[in-house]
Design a protein that fits this description.
single chain, mainly alpha, globular
């Protein structure tokens, strides 16, 4: 088999080529069946985006799956667990997208309770499968390297189940909330995937060259196949880069809930698999801020009937404050880059 570096390169290039060449046909197909986006009337004025084809995320997930299967070592259960979670969350999003389209109303998709129940159920199943693959009690530990010789270790015990579900489900919903402007979500997701890839590289290389601690994942039954996760990350990066070609302003297609819920859930699950949950929270800081803006808005409004932000998630607040859409997107990209740089301090 080819080396991991060559397979990562081929995965990224192949996924980019497939999406870049295939999306025009997908866009035409979706336009033919009038499967387009519906725009809320109570937010920033984006009525020109009405009926833009959506659910492109289904095609993105298909490409990621095919490419990663072609270039990865597929004998590892952890690889299939990752794909199964991706497919399951994509299915949830697709059902939500189709329901909204059929009713021609964004308020007639899955209810928040239905969506959350489905997400938690799938995350729990993936978690149980992962625990079986881990094969050691160290899966409940949180690991945060501070220096080469010192790391913070915290064992959550039984509470780790709740924590892991929060990471997976929270990541899925955070990406979904952030996916509200043309091109906004692709670069932050790419940067998170780069960050997870760096986490793999730095820890593996550091262990090989300097005998540094691998952290809790050294006890996992799949520890030797950790580099294979980098092939999956490379496929995601190539796919999102090509998608951005068509999703940048003015967007020709949206990924929809099918893409954002699926990809968000996958990167959250990979953070758990790689045992870098705390570092992941830093590198995904933009998604955390977007989610917190919604939580703060809802809680504060329920208590006072007043709003902290002009509209949540946060990107809409800045739109209503006078920023142009492209300004919001570019500046949020820059913020995401800063979070990745900060997270590098705690890697390895």
């Amino acid at each position: 088999m080819l080396g991991i570096d060559m397979r990562m390169t081929l995965a990224a290039l192949s996924s980019f080529a497939l999406v870049w060449l295939g999306l025009p046909y997908i866009i035409n197909l979706l336009q033919k069946h009038k499967l387009g986006q519906h725009i809320q009337a109570d937010g920033p004025k984006h009525m020109q985006k009405a009926h833009t084809p959506t659910m492109g995320g289904v095609f993105l997930v298909l490409v990621i799956s095919i490419v990663s299967i072609c270039f990865s070592e597929i004998s590892q259960p952890i690889f299939w667990l990752s794909l199964l979670l991706l497919w399951g969350y994509t299915a949830i999003g697709a059902v939500d997208d189709i329901s909204k389209w059929l009713h021609a109303n964004n308020d007639h998709g899955l209810t928040p309770r239905q969506k959350l129940l489905a997400q938690v159920t799938l995350a729990l199943l993936a978690y149980l499968g992962w625990v079986w693959c881990f094969n050691a009690s160290a899966y409940t530990q949180l690991h945060l390297p501070i220096t080469q010789d010192w790391a913070i270790q915290l064992d959550l015990g039984l509470a780790y189940l709740v924590f892991a579900l929060m990471v997976i489900v929270g990541s899925s919903n955070a990406v979904n909330l952030t996916d509200g402007l043309d091109g906004l979500v692709s670069i932050p997701l790419i940067l998170v995937c780069i960050g997870l890839g760096l986490e793999i590289f730095l820890r593996e290389v550091g262990h090989a060259l300097y005998a540094t601690d691998l952290g809790p994942w050294q006890f996992a039954a799949y520890a030797g196949s950790i580099p294979e996760m980098a092939v999956l990350l490379a496929a995601i990066i190539g796919t999102l880069a090509a998608f951005l070609w068509y999703n940048c302003h003015p967007a020709a297609i949206f990924m929809g809930d099918a893409g954002s819920l699926g990809l968000g859930g996958l990167v959250g699950f990979l953070a758990v698999v790689l045992k870098c949950e705390l570092v992941f929270a830093v590198m995904a800081g933009l998604f955390v801020i977007e989610t917190m803006s919604v939580i703060i808005q809802v809680l504060y409004y329920k208590r006072t009937k007043k709003r902290v932000f002009k509209m949540a998630p946060l990107h809409h607040h800045y739109e209503l404050s006078g920023w142009k859409e492209q300004q919001v997107v570019t500046r949020f990209w820059l913020v995401s880059m800063l979070f990745l740089l900060v997270s590098c301090v705690f890697m390895g």
